[in-house]
Structures are given as structure tokens and as C-alpha cells.
């Protein structure tokens, strides 16, 4: 059975930003891997919070504070349900980068010893490389890197041979931001756990594309950003298994995260507050919950089928396009098409597409080691989301035909 | 050595005013960008042996190399640039039309933002573009300051 047909026009109408002209042409927004647009439900939630509820949380001295606290903690429950976790295991962060840094700081730097190893993959975003690299440099541990096959999927045989009793942490992207490759993280987490390693999955490029269940996945930590999930910027999530979070020292210290403070010492608040020093991003959390509730009201199977159709259509165009090379041809991908044009530097292609109203990302996509391993300076990346249309894919390729005449 | 920095005549036989007049005449974006790309294609690039770390200007999207040569007798700074991206190289050629073969004092005083605003390309000089162009202009200016100092 195919999923019920999607009313794409009704869906797009909920994203007001999409209805505009850029450089005199209707906007074609294909930079969803960088950030997604926000539905009216999210914009309204932010407005309503600041217009009617704004107050500091967890103070409890007055009506508005109770109201704000209720919405803020309700948002945490919404995220917990979204990931199939419990609310104590959901920490608010600034975004994926901070989520990973918390684990690198409070687990890796605390526990790693010389001779230990941290295992990542070649296709990781800098945010899932540099925190581990720096933790290794600080502790004398070694960073190990899983290589890629020619189609840019992970070499799982190499993963098996790199995994050993020295491996203390395995940190893998659920989907590659630069190429879209979907990694078999459930399988990898199971193997890593069997080897005794702590596991983290960088879900930044996954959560907007398909449902994620952290119990099913089995990972110790799961990180994502609100703004790539139709929510506001500046809010992200770190899911962590309770036993691990309990054993970790705090990340930052200050207000909110304490239980008792004297000038001599302090004791820490319970989970999840132990990791949330200072006034949190209340509006961001409420906005992210609004995005998740909005997404939950959609037919996610239909959205996934639609995104797969966009990718299939774009891939078909790309294969027929003279002088275009797709970078990343793994069988299993989220809706991302990374490519190079013969004789066209990605920066030139991106600028000439922008002139035609088509927004893509160009460059190394914060994956310099990946680009080095592929021997290229970067790519042009069209990353699709639920509100893109097949017509927009056609417009991308019509615009690329014009770009070719400049090169 | 076949590369001769002093053979680059942008800044003398083609001036910033010439470029501005040409661009003002071209009103659609396609003609303007074809013109910019052509300027870049006509500009001699740097030979690979000159694309060294000290001549490198890092951009997030594209890379620029800058070579300079000061003629102390004439009091003029000669410039050569290259980029791996066509449009950035063309924009760099436009920068050269204003700054090449000029005295250090004139280079320091030149209003590059004003020029790029006049030719409606100011967004390319924006710090957020990350194309290396702004850093290149700063590097030329820094050298001019040191020569003048």
C-alpha cells in the first residue's frame, strides 16, 4: 500500500517564508541540511510565549512563572516522547554541537586513559570530530577513523576490525550532512556495546527525515538540533541514559544546576537540571516542542515517501546531466544530493544558482577530512525537506543547465 | 621565470572607472556575471610554485592567493591574484583595477566598499560571504601600510 497522497500545497502554505522572490525569482530553498524553515505553529508558539507567558522557570513564586515552567517542562516531555525516552534523560542544549561537547567533556575527558581509543567515521561533521580529537589530545587517547567505500557508505568490515577492547567511545552520525549517507547505527551501536564502548549518535541530519526511537537504537547518547527539525535556533537536545548521566560530573556550574551552595562547596541538582546551568532557552524549548507536535500531526510515512520521491527524481536528473558527478551514491540515503559540475567550482555554481533563486550550500560542509579523503575542495549540496516539490527539483536542474553556459 | 607580475595592466590601462562604466551598461545579472567571469579568465593566474602558504588567503568557500611586488623607485605596488573559483577571480580582478600599480598611500585611502557599492557588488565583499575577497583586500592594505610606515 502506498501512503496517502500528500497535499504539498497545503503543507507549503504553513511555511510562510517559502512564498517569496529571491533575485527576482521564486525562492527554491534547498539548504535544509543547514537549517529547516519553521511552520506557523512554531512561529505562533514563540509569539504566544513572549506575549503571554514569558517568565523565568523553576522559581514558582507567581502565576506566570508556574505557567512558563509548565510549558517548559511539558516541552521536555514532548521531546522525551518523540525519542521514546524518559524526561530525566532529556537535556536542553544550544544544539548538536553543545550536546556532543557535553559528552566529550564529562565522559571522554573524565574517563579516557593513554592507550584508549575513540572511534568515529570519515564522514563526520566537524562537531563530531573536534570534541573527540581534543579530548584525545588532552588524555593521551587515540582517535580512530572508519574509512568509506567508494559509494561513501561506511566500511563495516573496517569498523569490525577497528573495534576492540581499547575502544571506549564510538561516535557516529546517523546520516551524513555532506552526502546524505544513512549509516547503520543500530547495528554499529550493538557491536560497540558488545565491545564495551560508550556510544553516541549524532542525529542532527536524521530527526527531520524519519522517526527515531532511542530504546530501539540502543545508543547511550543521542544528539540533535531544534533548528534542523522545523524548530528555532539555539535549542538542541542531548538524550543520555540515566545511569551515565548520573555518573557524569556537571558540564557548567552556576544557578539552576545546584542543590545547596555554601562558599566552601556545592551539591548538584537532580537530573536533568544538573546539566542546565543558568536560565535556559525557555522560548526555544517551547518552540521546539511546537515543531515536534506539529510534525506528529502530519502523516510521517507520507512525508518520508515524498522525500524519497524527491531524492529519486533528483538522482535521475543528475544521472542524465552531462558533466555532473554525484558525490555519495550509497544505496541508503536521506534526501541529500551532493555533486560537482565539470569545470565548475562549487562556489561558482552556488552563486549562479542563487542568482536564479535556488538556495544550496557549497563548500566543505564542515567536513574537511571527508573532502580531503575524496580529494575534492567541496561539493554543491541540495538538501531537501518535506515541503520541497518535484517541480523545484526540475527548477534546480534547469538552473544548472544555465550555470553550465557560464563555465 | 615566465610569470611577470608587472605585465598585469589592470589598474593602468583598465581602471576602476572603466570597470564601473562597463558594469553600469550591463543591466541583467547574466551579462554582469559573464563579464566578471571573463575578467577573471583574462587575468593571468599565479603559477603553482607561487601558490604557497604565505600567499594564501583562506576563504570558507573558495581560496585566494595574492602576490605583491613593490617598485621602490616608482613608489608603486604591483599585485597579482589567483583563485580556484571563477567568480572570485573575476571579483579579484576588479579589486586589482582599483589597487594595482598604485602608491601605498593611495591603496590605504581607497574606498573599496564605496567602489563595490557603486558597481552593485557590495554583498561579495561582505564578511559573511567567506569568499576570501575581503581578507584579500585587507592583506593588500596591510602591506601598503607597512610600506608606507
From TrEMBL, chain A:
<dbReference type="InterPro" id="IPR015424">
    <property type="entry name" value="PyrdxlP-dep_Trfase"/>
</dbReference>
<dbReference type="InterPro" id="IPR000192">
    <property type="entry name" value="Aminotrans_V_dom"/>
</dbReference>
<protein>
    <recommendedName>
        <fullName>cysteine desulfurase</fullName>
        <ecNumber>2.8.1.7</ecNumber>
    </recommendedName>
</protein>
<dbReference type="InterPro" id="IPR015421">
    <property type="entry name" value="PyrdxlP-dep_Trfase_major"/>
</dbReference>
<keyword id="KW-0663">Pyridoxal phosphate</keyword>
<keyword id="KW-0808">Transferase</keyword>
<dbReference type="InterPro" id="IPR015422">
    <property type="entry name" value="PyrdxlP-dep_Trfase_small"/>
</dbReference>
<dbReference type="Pfam" id="PF00266">
    <property type="entry name" value="Aminotran_5"/>
</dbReference>
<dbReference type="InterPro" id="IPR010970">
    <property type="entry name" value="Cys_dSase_SufS"/>
</dbReference>
<dbReference type="GO" id="GO:0006534">
    <property type="term" value="P:cysteine metabolic process"/>
</dbReference>
<dbReference type="GO" id="GO:0030170">
    <property type="term" value="F:pyridoxal phosphate binding"/>
</dbReference>
<feature type="domain" description="Aminotransferase class V">
    <location>
        <begin position="28"/>
        <end position="396"/>
    </location>
</feature>
<dbReference type="GO" id="GO:0031071">
    <property type="term" value="F:cysteine desulfurase activity"/>
</dbReference>
<comment type="similarity">
    <text>Belongs to the class-V pyridoxal-phosphate-dependent aminotransferase family. Csd subfamily.</text>
</comment>
TrEMBL record, chain B:
<dbReference type="InterPro" id="IPR003808">
    <property type="entry name" value="Fe-S_metab-assoc_dom"/>
</dbReference>
<dbReference type="Pfam" id="PF02657">
    <property type="entry name" value="SufE"/>
</dbReference>
<protein>
    <submittedName>
        <fullName>SufE family protein</fullName>
    </submittedName>
</protein>
<feature type="domain" description="Fe-S metabolism associated">
    <location>
        <begin position="21"/>
        <end position="142"/>
    </location>
</feature>
<comment type="similarity">
    <text>Belongs to the SufE family.</text>
</comment>
Amino acid at each position: 500500500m502506498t501512503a496517502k497522497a500528500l497535499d504539498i500545497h497545503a503543507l507549503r502554505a504553513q511555511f510562510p517564508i517559502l512564498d517569496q522572490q529571491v533575485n527576482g525569482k521564486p525562492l527554491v530553498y534547498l539548504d535544509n541540511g543547514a537549517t529547516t524553515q519553521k511552520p506557523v505553529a512554531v512561529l505562533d508558539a514563540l509569539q504566544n510565549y513572549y506575549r503571554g507567558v514569558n517568565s523565568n522557570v523553576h522559581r514558582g513564586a507567581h502565576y506566570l512563572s508556574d505557567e512558563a515552567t509548565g510549558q517548559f517542562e511539558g516541552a521536555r516531555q514532548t521531546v522525551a516522547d518523540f525519542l521514546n525516552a524518559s524526561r530525566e534523560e532529556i537535556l536542553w542544549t544550544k544544539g548538536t554541537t553543545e550536546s556532543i561537547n557535553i559528552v566529550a567533556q564529562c565522559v571522554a575527558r573524565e574517563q579516557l586513559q593513554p592507550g584508549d581509543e575513540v572511534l568515529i567515521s570519515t564522514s563526520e561533521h566537524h562537531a563530531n570530530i573536534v570534541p573527540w580529537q581534543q579530548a584525545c589530545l588532552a588524555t593521551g587517547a587515540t582517535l580512530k577513523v572508519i574509512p568509506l567505500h567508494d559509494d561513501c557508505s561506511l566500511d563495516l568490515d573496517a569498523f569490525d576490525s577497528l573495534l576492540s577492547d581499547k575502544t571506549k567511545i564510538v561516535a557516529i552520525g546517523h546520516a551524513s550532512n555532506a552526502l546524505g549517507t544513512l549509516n547503520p547505527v543500530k547495528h554499529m551501536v550493538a557491536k560497540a556495546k558488545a565491545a564495551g564502548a560508550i556510544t553516541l549518535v549524532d542525529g542532527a541530519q536524521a530527526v527531520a527525515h524519519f522517526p527515531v526511537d532511542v530504546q530501539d537504537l540502543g545508543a547511550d547518547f543521542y544528539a540533535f538540533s531544534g533548528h534542523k527539525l522545523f524548530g528555532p535556533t539555539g535549542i538542541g537536545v542531548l538524550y543520555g541514559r540515566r545511569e551515565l548521566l548520573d555518573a557524569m560530573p556537571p558540564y557548567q556550574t552556576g544557578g539552576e544546576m545546584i542543590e545547596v551552595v555554601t562558599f566552601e562547596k556545592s551539591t548538584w541538582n537532580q537530573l536533568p537540571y544538573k546539566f542546565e546551568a543558568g536560565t535556559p532557552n525557555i522560548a526555544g524549548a517551547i518552540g521546539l516542542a511546537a515543531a515536534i507536535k506539529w510534525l506528529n500531526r502530519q502523516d510521517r510515512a507520507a512525508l518520508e515517501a515524498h522525500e524519497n520521491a524527491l531524492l529519486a527524481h533528483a538522482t535521475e536528473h543528475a544521472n542524465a546531466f552531462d558533466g555532473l558527478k554525484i558525490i555519495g551514491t550509497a544505496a541508503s540515503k536521506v534526501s541529500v544530493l551532493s555533486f560537482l559540475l565539470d569545470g565548475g567550482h562549487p562556489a561558482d555554481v552556488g552563486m549562479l544558482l542563487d542568482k536564479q533563486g535556488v538556495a544550496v550550500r557549497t563548500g566543505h560542509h564542515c567536513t574537511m577530512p571527508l573532502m580531503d579523503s575524496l580529494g575534492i575542495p567541496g561539493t554543491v549540496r541540495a538538501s531537501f525537506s518535506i515541503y520541497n516539490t518535484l517541480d523545484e527539483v526540475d527548477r534546480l536542474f534547469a538552473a544548472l543547465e544555465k550555470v553550465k553556459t557560464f563555465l | 621565470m615566465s610569470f611577470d607580475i608587472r605585465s598585469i595592466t589592470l589598474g593602468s590601462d583598465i581602471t576602476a572607472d572603466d570597470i564601473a562604466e562597463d558594469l553600469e551598461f550591463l543591466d541583467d545579472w547574466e551579462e554582469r556575471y559573464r563579464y566578471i567571469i571573463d575578467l577573471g579568465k583574462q587575468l593571468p593566474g599565479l603559477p603553482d610554485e607561487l601558490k604557497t602558504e604565505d600567499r594564501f588567503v583562506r576563504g570558507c568557500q573558495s581560496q585566494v592567493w595574492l602576490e605583491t611586488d613593490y617598485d621602490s623607485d616608482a613608489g608603486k605596488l604591483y599585485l597579482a591574484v589567483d583563485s580556484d573559483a571563477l567568480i572570485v577571480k573575476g571579483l579579484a580582478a576588479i579589486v586589482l583595477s582599483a589597487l594595482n600599480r598604485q602608491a601605498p598611500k593611495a591603496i590605504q585611502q581607497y574606498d573599496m566598499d564605496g567602489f563595490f557599492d557603486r558597481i552593485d557588488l557590495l554583498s561579495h565583499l561582505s564578511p559573511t560571504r567567506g569568499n576570501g575577497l575581503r581578507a584579500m583586500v585587507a592583506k593588500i592594505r596591510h602591506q601598503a601600510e607597512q610600506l608606507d610606515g
